[in-house]
Design goal:
The structure is a homodimer of 410-residue chains. Chain A has 410 residues and is α+β, with helices and mostly antiparallel strands. Helices cover 31% and strands 25% of the residues of chain A. The radius of gyration of chain A is 22 Å and the shape is globular. The interface between A and B is large, with 71 and 71 residues.
């Protein structure tokens, strides 16, 4: 199936700097996708530290199990990714396949197999055929210059309609530091910790513990705050690798004030990548921010926001540019989280559409109909029982989603 | 929007007998729907007992609150239903409107307003205009013969493409007893106790307590075991009225062996109505039974079954007649309920597609592709950690759902 570039896609792939200590190569196996790379190999400098978050699915893929074990033992040599087959629910053959992939990468970049992270994305349940990946990895010339970030992003994508990258810079102890990330994902997006695949690299010199703490915290409000279709992937993996090539001393205290600007920059990269995933949501024509305020707790606010963001009735109304705020009320009600129906307020962009449990005075259908034509929409709901809030991002549900998913495997 | 009759609709409305002690009339207000009844008035005989279950939404409509209070005080005189406006999120005006509706009905059938149940279905958030309903109720001639069950079912429907009715008979203490039910519903169907509107009548002589116990129990495996779109209505109401006109003594013990055949008959009516709701699911082209076995508990089995039934990726694959069982694995994994991935077995109808965490030996795509062409499908998943099971019913997710819901209010 030929997929048209999402109407919400950014104009172009961003300029992204080289990260010292990161070498990357891609290969085209031709196994599922023709004419584009579908394998990514990354080699990290010896001093690198890696942090990661993975799917909470109780039926994770073999690569997720492998990479979790890598993380536990502090593996830091490299990463091999293939797109087209997720190697999930593939039993012992799948487990053997991951080990073989790690061995291929290790042979190429010169390290132990157990030091190589592996990620796979694509169809679930199809036994993995190793030979095309093996041929692809064999063909990589490590003497070659790095592939571009854009090519790396392309190599890890499946139904994505555009490659996703984001970069930021900051200073640590006066030394310039760079952060570059790539991501893939457009369906089966409903993170329960991480979502889809994302690999983020920095030359900062930061201890593993601090790196992991930053990634876990920022993940909650970026990748874990998006949903396309409420379906949680079996392969979700986000890795953050720091190569320690920047010219500053190691930071090993999460409270180090030097970290503030780094954390902000890393958060921007992760937010940007998470938003790009939603904007490439299968069939998406609208990007929607849903902010719930006045909740009892942050988790209650998130539960309500996700209930709205995942409601097929809300999502189809948005696709139809219909400001059907009654369905927002429904979704608040079904979430089960505490809300004061008779004090509820709902805003579409700058327009108050409901307050005190009733349609707002001055409500004007024409004004709202006009607002709904925007490709990016903001919906805010105040549930009037507390002071906590949470924001999530989603897209609409269109015919495009059904076209893509009614016929994905063929 | 003109909606085509669901391809899953039954051939015709069933023959349904008169229930002694139940009088029914409909009216056409023309407020939203032209050329068909949209108001239903029911009068119950003086000895009647009523049981009920309602939406668990935290933002229920004013009619739900009114009828819950009726149930608490043992109201048993009658019922007024309007279709087209759900009278939800309508504040004090909505609450006044329900009371006024109860008064209209009380004046017509000769009782106190507080003894009349009220149910409304349709758009949420639109202030209710009472005058058309008032005109409609005024025009009803109570001397007229009962309307047909089919007309009654039509009068309570909204986006339904066919009227839904079901009837069974049995004996109690040797006396013939009849059960007739009607229902409406096709979108915003994800019961969290009851779903949509359903009104069931019997001439049996059964105490209120026993009636309520039967309704609550049977509801769990009928209306509470279906989902169209995971969205829980603000108006869900199921009422069961027993007029005590049958010629047997009152049954007031839930363990009375005489109840066995009545319970079975009532269960059949409720199952049939629940299935009819799913078969009229907005845009539905496939009716799907999902049975989860081998679970730790009934609630775990239901959580897994609902996770599969509500997955947009599973539902779109079914729409595309694609036996994409990898998405079943995904949905099991995201449910969070305990399952043994490496012992999981999946059946599509009679065909074993996966076992022991891997594609089944003899798996044949052609056979499955052929099976997927059936309008009614059965999917069974054994999660291999216990002995409990649960079955739910759902439909596929098609372009029709989006067509209907992208433009519902206009």
């Amino acid at each position: 199936m030929h997929l048209k570039r999402s109407p919400l896609a950014p104009c172009h792939f961003p300029d992204m700097p080289h990260i010292g200590g990161v070498q990357m190569w891609t290969a085209k196996t031709g196994a599922k996708y023709q004419g584009r790379p579908d394998v990514l190999l990354v080699k990290l400098a010896g001093e690198s530290r890696v942090a990661g978050v993975f799917t909470k699915s109780t039926a994770p893929g073999a690569p997720v199990e492998w990479s979790k074990a890598c993380l536990a033992r502090g593996a830091n040599a490299g990463l091999l990714v293939n797109a087209g087959n997720a190697n999930v629910f593939t039993g012992q053959i799948g487990r053997d396949g991951v080990r073989d992939m790690a061995n291929m990468a290790a042979g190429k970049i010169g390290c132990e197999a157990q030091d190589v992270y592996v990620a796979s994305t694509g169809v679930i349940g199809e036994p993995l055929t190793l030979s095309p990946i093996e041929q692809g990895v064999k063909g990589i010339q490590v003497a070659d210059v790095n592939c571009s970030w854009e090519n790396a992003a392309r190599a890890i994508s499946t139904t994505d309609t555009y490659p996703k990258g984001s970069a930021q810079s900051c200073t640590l102890d006066g030394a310039p530091v760079h952060i570059c990330g790539i991501a893939k994902g457009s369906g089966m997006i409903a993170p329960d910790m991480a979502t889809m695949l994302s690999f983020i690299f920095t030359d900062a010199n930061i201890s593993r513990e601090v790196l992991q703490a930053l990634l876990s915290e920022l993940n909650e409000t970026s990748f874990n705050a998006i949903t396309v279709d409420s379906d949680t992937s079996t392969s979700d993996t986000v890795l953050l690798a720091a190569t320690a090539q920047a010219s500053h001393g190691e930071i090993n205290d999460i409270n180090d004030p030097e970290l503030v600007s780094f954390k902000r920059a890393l958060g921007l990269v992760m937010h940007d990548l998470a938003h790009q995933v939603v904007k490439d949501g299968e069939g998406a024509s609208k990007f929607v921010e849903i902010c719930v305020t006045g909740a009892e707790s942050g988790s209650a606010a998130k539960a309500i926001a996700m209930s709205i963001a995942n409601s097929p009735l809300v999502k189809t109304a948005i696709a139809g540019e219909d400001a059907n705020w009654g369905r927002i009320v429904m979704a608040v009600g079904k979430s089960g989280a505490h809300a004061n129906r008779d004090k509820l307020a709902i805003y579409f962009g700058p327009y108050l559409v409901a307050k005190d449990g009733y349609r707002a005075p001055g409500y004007d259908e024409g004004t709202l109909a006009n607002y709904m034509k925007n490709p990016e929409l903001k919906i805010r709901v105040d549930v009037a029982v507390g002071t906590e809030s949470f924001t999530v991002w989603t897209c609409d549900l269109t015919h495009g989603y059904i076209d893509i998913n009614a016929d994905y495997r063929s």
